[in-house]
Predict the structure of Polyamine aminopropyltransferase.
Amino acid sequence: MKKNLLFPSTVFLGAFLLFQVQPLIGKYFLPWFGGTSSVWTICLLFFQLLLLGGYAYAHFLQRFAPCRQVMMHCSLLGAVILVGIALFFVWGNPILPSADWRPENNLWPAWSVFRLLLVSIGAAYFLLAANTSLLQAWMHKADSSKSPYVLYIVSNTASLLALLGYPFLAEPFFALKTQAFLWSLGFIVYALLCALAARHVRDISASAVNQDAALGSSSPGWRRYLAWISLSACGVLVLMAITNQMTQDVPPVPFLWVLPLALYLLSYIVGFMDRLAIGKWNDVYLYILVVGCYLAWYLMEKGSVIGLIPQIAGYGLVLFSLCLFCHNGLYRRRPEPRFLTGFYLSISLGGVLGGIFVAIVSPVVFSHYWEYQISLVLAAVLAVFTVYADKKSMFHVVRHALWIPVLLLGFNVSRDAVEESGKSVYISRNFFGKVYVAKKAQMDNTVMSYELKHGHITHGLQIDHPIYRKYPTTYYTEKGGGGLAIVKHPKRRLGQPMHVGLLGMGIGTLAAHGQEGDVFRFYEINPEVINLATNSPWFTYVGDSKANVEVVCGDGRMAMEDDLKAGISKFDVLAIDVFSGDQVPVHIITKEAFGLYLELLEEDGLIAIHISNRYLDLAPVLKAAAGHYGLYSSLITTPKKGFSSQTTWVLMGRSERLVEKISPSGIGGEVSRLWTDDFSNLFSVLRK
C-alpha cells in the first residue's frame, strides 16, 4: 500500500476500533451493575484515562530514535494479540470476561467497573489510544512537507462512523460475543497495517529528526498549555454532564450514549477544519455558544414536559454548540507539528480532569447534578477570556460588560436546583443516582404526603395521616398489577401464608398488602433507597407491614441466583419493579432472567412486571419471553384516580385459568425478537 494511503488507513481503522468497542463493552458490563447510567459515566472516565495514557506513551516514544519507536510499539501490539488468544481459551472470548468474573458485591461499583475494563480491553485500548498521535508524528517524520493534522480529522471521522454504526448496524444484527470476535479480528488487521506504516519511519536516523527540530520555533508557553487543558476539560465536562442529564430518566440505551459522543467528535471535525477555523468564523462560534446556552436554560425550564425526540435534539444542539466553541479554540491555538504529541497530551489531560470531576468528584461533593450547570457557566467564562485575548473580535470593545450575561446565565440555570432544594426534606446522591424526598400537600392542604423521587419519576408516596398511612398508593394499589397478583392469588383467598419476592423496593409500598404469616423479600441495589424505606421518618410501609419483611441489598437477579443456589423457598408471587427514573435494566427481562424466575416460582405462581414508561414499550419484549416459556400473559392498565397513578403491568403465569381470572385481556400487538443476555435492542422499543 502506498504511503499516502497507508497512514490515513491505519489511523482510520485504529480510531474506528477505539470507538466501536466503547458501546460494546459498556453494554456488556451494564447488567452486572444494575443497569444504571452511572456505568457509562465510569466507562467514559476509563476511556479518558486510557486516552491520556496512550497520548503520554506516544509523547514518551518521541525521545527515542524512530527505529526504537517502531520496535517497541510493534512488540506491544504483538503481545496484546497473544494475550487475547490466551484469554479466548480462558473466557471463550478475547475481550469479554466470563460470568465468573462478575463481582459478587457492589460495595465499590466504580472500582469494579474500572477493574473489569482494565482486564478486558485495557492493553488493547491503550495502544489504540496512542494511534492518532503516534501515526501523525511518524507521518511528519516520513514527509515533513504535509500537515499531519489532517489525520486528526480522519481519526475523528472514523470514530464518528464507528459510533453511529453501532446502534444501527452492530447492535441490531450481531450478538455481543459476535461483535467482540469481529472487533478482535479488526485489531489484528490494524496491527498489521501499523507494522507496514512503521516501515516508512524505521530507517530515518535520529540525527535527521533532531536537525529538523532545531529549525523550528521555541516550545509553547505555559499559558498555551493551560488554554489547551481548559478548553479540552470544558468539552469533556459538557459531554459527560449532558449525557448524565439526558439519561437520568431515559433508559441507558447505547444510542443515547453514542449520540452525545458522536456530536462531540463532529464538533472536533468541524472545529479542526482550516476553512472554518479562522477569520470571521471566530465570532460566529461565539454566537453559536450564546444560542446553545439559551437553549440549555430553556430545556431546564421545560424539559420535563416536552417529548423524547425534542429533548434529545435540544440536548444534542447544546452539546454540539458548546463543544464546537471549545474545539475550534483548540485548533486556533495548535502548535507546530513537532509539538503535536504534547498538544494531544494536554488535550487528553484536560479530558481526564473533566471526566474525574463528573464521575468521581461530583457524586461525592454535590447532592444535585450541578455539573451540567457548571459546564454551561465554564463555557461562557472561557468565551469571555477568548474575547479578551482576541483584539480582532467585534466583542472586544465591550469585553468587560460580557460578565453580566455570564452572571445571569449562572443565576438562571441554577435556579431550578435551588428551588428543588427548598421543596425537598432530604436529598442524597451516590453511584446509582440522585434520590430526594419531597413534601406535598394533599386533600385541600389538610394532609401532607411524602414522595420518593428519582429525577422526575415518583418511586412511592405515603400520606402522613393515621387513617391513610397504611393505604398503598401510586402504582401499587390493589387494582394495579402488582397488588392484584398478591390480593387475588389463590393462597390469599384461602387465607394461607404467602412468599412474595419483590425486585426493586422504592419506599416498600407493596409491603402494605402483607398479612400475618407472609414473607415479603425485597431485592434492592441502592443502599440509600433501603435506608429511606426502612429507617426514615417519612416512609413506614415496611415497618407497618403485617408480613415478615426481608431486605437483600444487591442486584436483584444476581441475589436471586444466590438464593436459588442456597435453596430458598419458592415464591407465590414475584413482583418486578426495577425502575431508576424511566430506565429499565435490560438484564431483568431477558430469556435467561425469566428462566431464573421460573425456577424460583411455585407451579401456580404469578410474575407481575411493572412497565409504565414514557419512552419504552416493553410489552412486545415480554410477550416474546412469555411465548418462549409457554406462559400465559395479560396486560393490566390502571387509570389515574385519587392516590392511584396511571400504571401498566404485565401479568404472567403457567396457569391460564389463574391469569385470565385476574385479567383476561392478554397482550395485543407485535412480538419482538426474544431478548437474551447476549442480545437486546432498546432502540427498537422506543415509543414513536
